[in-house]
Amino acid sequence: MTDKLRGIEQRYGEIEARLAANETYEDPDLVSRLNKEQRELEPLVTAYRSWCKAGEDLRGAEELLSDPDFKDLAQEEMAKAREELERLEQLIRELLLPRDPNDDKNVIVEIRAGVGGEESALFAHSLTRMYTMYAEKRGWKVEVNSVSETELGGVKDISLTISGDGAYSRLKFESGVHRVQRVPETESGGRVHTSTATVAVLPEMEQVDVQLNPADVEMQVYRASGAGGQHVNKTSSAVRLIHKPTGTVVECQQERSQFQNREKAMRILASMLYDQEQQRISEEYGDQRRSQVGSGMRNERIRTYNFPQGRLTEHRIGLTIYKLDAVMDGDLDEIIDGLITADRAQRLKQGEG
To answer: What is the 3-state secondary structure (H, E, C) of 224-276?
Structure first.
């Protein structure tokens, strides 16, 4: 492992030297690539350098042990250095884990009402608001690709594109069935109802990332409409794409022009086809793959939102928190950080096994 870390530090030094050279800036694409690689290597190089220093501190403290006047201090410093070495070794093992190649991508988030009629559609609307507010807190951009609403303001289904640094790395664990327990606004007797909504998070793919034959795609155009069938525009700018081999259907209706809607719909279709292939591979892994935090199985109940008790339970990692209002306002970091930590621990365990 030490040889590998030395090699990474050497590469980091080479990047620093190239970025310091004036001629490098004649090629903007090269500068962008070097900056990106430097950002990716920096946490590991910093941890490795701190680990080397902790090793030097330990050796220095060991040398003081033979001096009776400094024996107590030396033992104290040795204990500190060993603790720091252990912490940094754990961090380095985590940083050396293979990165998900999609972590830097933007995401397509699809939210669909599930069991529970109108109440599930209202919950899907609440989830849409939650993710939108979370994205805004992190400085990400949110665009609606298509939406089907109910008369009472619920969402039957919605497709969003969320763009920003690390969007997929943070949101990829949100795929699955979200369950809500609350008293619906339409419930006169005050009874708590249980409803569900399904969330799917896909990395946004370009057409070049997926083998997509244009001859396999049928395009239909129609007029975009809002809730209750009211037309939002009078031209047939909305686009529906049908991938004939798989029957996958994608709609995009939010852009002003048919061309823009088609471009966006093709990216969404590429993302869905990529995701279908990943799901097929996941199922081949069987139970081992599904036991992981990030399995993204669509039928897996991952989280319960209990409004009467203000309680959220994240079933995959056994996390329960009592600040549901804050979560629904986009305060998701505690949950997402817990899921990322659990996923790393699972991958480390598998690597050691």
So the answer is: CECHHHCECCCCCCEEEEEECCCCEEEEECCCCCHHHHHHHHHHHHHHHHHHH
Amino acid in position 229: G
pTM: predicted TM-score of the whole model, two decimal places: 0.72
**How is domain 107-204+270-346 classified at the CATH fold level?**
Alpha-Beta Plaits (3.30.70)
Cβ atoms of 273 and 210 closer than 8 Å = yes
With beta carbons less than 8 A apart as the criterion, state whether 303 and 319 touch.
no
Across the beta sheet with 248-252, the strand order is: 217-222, 238-243, 248-252
Instruction: Please state the domain extents for the chain.
Output: 2-95, 107-204+270-346
The CATH code of the domain at 2-95 is 1.20.58
- Cβ atoms of residues 15 and 42 within 8 Å: no
Residue 37 CB contacts under 8 Å (≥ 6 apart), including other chains: 15
For 337, the token pair is 């950080």
For the segment 140-189, what is each residue's pLDDT rounded down to a tens digit?
999 998 899 998 889 999 999 999 988 999 999 999 999 999 988 767 77
Instruction: Report the b/e string of 208-237 with b at 16+ CB within 10 A.
Output: ebbebeeeebeeeeeebeeeeeeeeeeeeb
**Burial of 336 per CB tally in 10 Å (0-12, 13-18, 19+):** middle
What's the token pair of residue 262? 């088609």
Counting every residue written for the chain, the total comes to 353
